[in-house]
Design brief:
Largest interface: A-B, 21 and 21 residues
CATH topology of the largest domain in chain A: TIM Barrel
Shape of chain A: globular
CATH class of the largest domain in chain A: Alpha Beta
CATH architecture of the largest domain in chain A: Alpha-Beta Barrel
Number of helices of chain B: 3
Largest sheet of chain A: 8 strands, mixed
Distance between the termini of chain B: 28 Å
Helix content of chain A: 40-55%
Structural class of chain A: alpha/beta
Strand order of the largest sheet of chain A: 1-8-7-3-4-5-6-2
Number of strands of chain B: 4
Helix content of chain B: 25-40%
Strand order of the largest sheet of chain B: 1-4-2-3
Strand content of chain A: 5-15%
CATH architecture of chain B: 2-Layer Sandwich
Oligomer: heterodimer
CATH topology of chain B: Histidine-containing Protein, Chain: A
Number of helices of chain A: 23
Shape of chain B: globular
Chain lengths: 564, 87
């Protein structure tokens, strides 16, 4: 009998729940064929080989498109057309005739169009990733390698293990087929963590050894504790599932508005990226929306959307929360979300520190004012109260200009700002004199406080909202608000223990991905406001994120009781 | 050879779905069909990559050239329509 592979891995738990099933690993990147690589001599046979690989790639993409949802189908069918492009095929053939091997000829031919699209910027630059995917699939065909990305046509539900996951890897995943995510890299705000929470799938990230899990091995993933156990015994699986059932029972037993055990109200709101996210927010008992990201209206298009189009999209969300509050963030363009019609004024070597958010919209007042006017129209007669906030505000003067723009556009509700720049947190008192409320964006606040790009895997250790320095900035902001609303809409609010700490720091509302709402509601309901204050003080007294987490949990004893 | 000039009406320009429909319509011609933006170099209208590479925006003029007049008419209809239609 073969020895049992009893790998026992630990990582950062970022999305609770138990997942148990066979591992599927994300195939490694397709290698770049060597420059100048030659074929054996029979050019015509090599051309047939290349054409066959392009055709097979197109056929696969068409078949996947037929099964995918509308948005994904459009991308996939455009990719299939790229694989069937006659000019591309001619170019590949010409390169092969001059002696280049089929894989390298494919690489070079795609490269020419890649440069063309990347150089055009905006919408076309965003298509470069699609083009690269077609190229890599074709080369994988030619080299007999597994297709890059998530394997297709896996028959049974699986645990997806990878070094890291990119948005393109997860776009087509069916939540019904993924039991859990385990990644070697990534932190609580990584793409994997965010997508896992939004899908309600258990996930453990920053887990050394994850990429080395053997495909087909059954693993038990505990998204609450961070433990990943390969080949567990049946008793082990049953124990984990029993604990999970107890957790779900505890979670579902608590309903209604967010409040601490002693009745202190903490409105629990949802982060949404458009009307499509509203049903899940309602289902999880959101009392409103704390962050309505409006980028979806503006991405992948050549011009700004019309005011009428915007009014419809805003009104749809406002009407879903009668009597509640909906906080809309104005367009956060620039940095990692470039838009064709809002180009940065110059090359930006550090886009995260560049012209983005409110800085971008101040350069394009027509786009800003159009959005604010559309919001004012949507608010008329809406069932919910509309509040509007600007991203990337640094000082009081910027805050004042935003509020003035809101009033000029006819917005009568609250006008506030995101606090995500440390300078804004440090001088929150100045800002509070100008604006109606604050919303802390803890993801960016952490990135800027630690000077660590959140997209860089190598700097993941810095991207932890439990950092005492970040907690200090939250406390300063809440104190500076001087009685005005100070919410959190970053991923920090979705961590049940940290949510209690944030309340203890003076935060008044919490907004998060909808599936986290019941967990945070439960955590708050089991602790008094004083316990939250003590947990916050204990966390701030620590000197490392781990110590802060541990110190806070000793003041929040009920978390372990209910499996959070 | 016949030629037609038309102003692109779609909001997104000759990108995304309008570009895909345009290329599919051009592919129905047995002979060559080219498309040029303004006074620019003509490119193969059956090539999605070449058409995308032209980066034609809303309100810009394109000229299509080819032997099959029915196909040219179809291309003009597509490019001149504000909302893309058809499969």
């Amino acid at each position: 009998m073969a020895a049992r592979d009893a790998t026992d891995l630990r990582g950062t738990p970022v999305s609770p729940g138990i997942g148990y099933g066979p591992v599927v690993t994300l195939a490694a990147a397709v290698p770049v064929p060597a420059e100048g690589e030659r074929h054996a001599g029979d050019a015509e046979a090599e051309i047939v080989r290349a054409a066959g690989a392009l055709d097979a790639t197109a056929t696969t993409l068409e078949a996947r498109g037929a099964r995918a949802g509308e948005t994904a189908a459009e991308v996939l069918s455009a990719q299939a057309m790229m694989a069937r492009d006659p000019s591309l095929a001619d170019d590949v053939a010409a390169r092969v005739r001059s002696g280049t091997s089929a894989p390298r000829a494919v690489y070079d031919a795609f490269g020419m169009y890649r440069d063309l699209l990347a150089g055009a910027g905006g919408y076309l630059a965003a298509r470069v990733a699609d083009l690269d995917d077609v190229r890599d699939r074709t080369i994988a065909h030619l080299l007999g390698l597994p297709m890059p990305g998530v394997p297709e046509d896996v028959a049974e539900p699986f645990v997806l293990a990878a070094r890291d996951l990119a948005p393109a890897d997860t776009a087509l995943l069916d939540p019904g087929t993924v039991l859990a995510f385990v990644t070697e890299q990534g932190g609580p705000t990584s793409h994997t963590a965010i997508i896992a929470r939004s899908m309600g799938v258990p996930a453990v990230v920053g887990c050394p050894g994850a990429a080395g899990l053997v495909p087909g091995t059954n693993v038990l993933v505990n998204g609450g504790t961070g433990r990943v156990l390969a080949d567990p015994g049946a008793d082990e699986v049953e124990r984990a599932r029993a604990a999970e059932r107890a957790r779900i029972a505890a979670v579902t037993a608590v309903t209604g508005p967010g409040r601490t055990a002693d009745g202190c109200a903490v409105p629990l709101l949802a982060n949404v990226g458009g009307p499509k996210d509203v049903p899940m927010a309602v289902e999880h008992g959101a009392e409103g929306v704390g962050l309505y990201r409006t980028e979806f209206l503006f991405l992948d298009r050549a011009d700004a959307p019309s005011e009428d189009e915007q009014v419809a999209a805003y009104a749809e969300v406002l009407n879903a929360f009668p009597g509640g509050k909906v906080v809309v963030r104005t367009l956060d363009a620039g940095a990692d979300k470039p838009l064709a019609f809002l180009p940065p004024p110059d090359d930006e070597p550090n886009p995260a520190l560049g012209v983005r958010g409110a800085r971008m919209l101040e350069r394009h007042p027509d786009v800003r004012d159009g959005q604010l006017r559309a919001l004012a129209r949507a608010a008329e007669g809406a069932a919910a109260r509309l509040a509007v906030m600007a991203p990337m505000i640094t000082d009081a003067a910027e805050g004042r200009r935003f509020v003035e723009a809101c009033r000029t556009a006819g917005l009568t509700g609250d006008a506030g700002v995101m606090v995500e720049v440390p300078a804004a947190a440090l001088r929150a008192g100045d800002l509070a004199a100008e604006v109606d409320f604050f919303s802390l964006g803890t993801n960016d606040l952490t990135q800027y406080a630690c000077a660590a790009d959140r997209e860089l895997g190598a700097l993941n250790a810095f991207q932890d909202p439990w950092r005492p320095a970040v907690l200090d900035l939250v406390a300063l902001t809440a104190a500076g608000a001087g009685g005005k609303d100070c919410g959190v809409c970053g991923e920090a609010a979705a961590d049940p223990a940290l949510a209690c700490v944030l309340v203890g720091l003076g935060v008044t509302t919490l907004s998060m991905s909808a599936p986290a709402l019941p967990l945070v509601r439960l955590a708050l309901s089991r602790h008094t406001y004083d316990q939250c204050v003590r947990a916050a003080a204990a966390a701030r007294a620590a000197t490392t994120p781990d110590a802060a987490r541990a110190a806070a949990r000793t003041e929040l004893p009920e978390l372990d009781e209910v499996g959070l | 050879m016949a030629q037609r000039t038309v102003t692109v009406a779609a909001e997104v320009g000759l990108h995304a779905r309008p570009a895909a429909l345009f290329v599919q319509a051009a592919a129905k011609s047995a002979g060559d069909v080219t498309v040029a933006k303004g006074d620019g170099e003509p490119v193969n209208a059956k090539s999605i990559l070449a058409v995308l590479g032209l980066d034609v925006r809303h309100g810009q003029e394109i000229t299509v050239t080819g032997d099959d007049e029915a196909v040219l008419d179809a291309l003009v209809d597509l490019a001149g329509a504000a909302e893309p239609t058809g499969a």
